[in-house]
Amino acid sequence: xxDGDTSRHREYCGPSPSPTPEPASSQNFVSTYFPPSRPxxxxxxxxxxxxxxxxxxxxxxxxxxxESCLNLIAKxxxxxxxxxxxxxxxxxxxxxxxxxxxWFLLVRQANVEETGSSKDHDGAGSEREGVEGEAKEEKDxxxxxxxxxxxxxxxxxxxxxxxxxxxxLRGCGLGSTLMGMMEGVGRAADVDKSMLTxxxxxxxxxxxxxxxxxxxxxxxxxxxxxxxxxxxxxGYFIMSKRLK
Length: 244
What we know:
It is built from eight helices and ten strands. By secondary structure, the chain is α+β, with helices and mostly antiparallel strands. An eight-stranded mixed sheet has the order 1-2-3-4-5-6-10-7, with helices on both faces. It has a two-stranded antiparallel sheet with strand order 8-9. The radius of gyration is 18 Å and the shape is globular.
């Protein structure tokens, strides 16, 4: 399952995002929006493997982590990008991923010592190391979600830019877990809704979003009738979910 390609390009969603009031430091962001009660790990229901979920701002994403995320996008969605109006452009995507306000939830398989030392999401243990950019990188990123608190039509929303999972992590509940964590940030920030963009050809991802409460947003593009009478279908949809 491609839990989906939700890349939000300027070609898709209008103006680039405006900055929003956020905690000044990444440590404050984590303690505010990822409370200690939220578990920092995910256990695969079929094989029992444990994965850490580390929140990181784009500024603290290492070059290795960035390329690992980019490779996931390429594996799951480069063909969909290639079929879009601007095509698959890794350099542009890499630049977008470095947007200062962007946050990532990185999923990596945990070592025994990592799960034993992780305490909570307020920055303690190995999670604090991750937030401060000092986490060990011996494990590849096997899934990630990127998001941003940004403006849409005059309202602050939490916007999911990307969510991509390795084949072995699809269909096991991890996608829902990551989306739930992002939505938790939105609720803690008191925003009205979460939003995302999905390629029209990605019906499987769209059905997944519908199952967890998303529907077509009022801003999603509609089919247009051309002068020759043909109907031009949109290449993407904008979906949203009310958070309050």
